[in-house]
Amino acid sequence: MLSVVVPCYNEEQRLPRTIEQIERYLDGNHVAYELILVDDGSADGTRKVMDAAVDRHTGVRVEALPRNRGKGRALAVGVQAAKGDEILLTDADLSTPIEELEKLQAALSAGAGAAIGSRALRGSRVEISQPLYRVLMGKVFNLIVQAVLLPGIWDTQCGFKLFRADVAHRVFTDLITDGFGFDPEVLYRARKQGVRIVEVPVVWRNSSPTKVSAVRSSLDMLKHVIRLRFSL
Asked: Which pLDDT value is given to residue 62?
């Protein structure tokens, strides 16, 4: 079975379409799956959207944090609850279409323990780009991540990642980073454990608005990367 984990914070507007697209694709391809929606302390109608999805579809489950903790913590809760043999992490805005799942599954079938979507490889297709300043900040951040933690991985921050279940449960256990900087941590943990990580070019479409602050979130992620280098 496939587990799909979607972290959500104030996603009342975008979440209904995302749920519909995931269900239509997986049901249409006769995939055995569970869709785990994690409410990260939302203050809008996100939980009502989730509960309606549970009532409509037997494959949907909800996990909820009592207060907003951050994307990394929400995913850790979702992964802990997941029962599938493979665990897909995808964003609530579905910037990478769910149809790209097949590419990541092919990498796992070929022996990878983790397959991560990438916007930086030849073959990637960014159909709607971020503003230029965000693109440049992202490139600088990834260069720092390569230098400090993960040489050879060009895009750690794409929110579309598929793990073998045993790998996901190991790397998300005892997660240090609650916020947006969790990606380098889980990938660094995986690499230290000898897990083969494959970067896969995918389609990506920027979705506005974003909850990632260009300055505050970037500085926070950088701080966690430096801390990880010396603590793990």
From this structure: 98
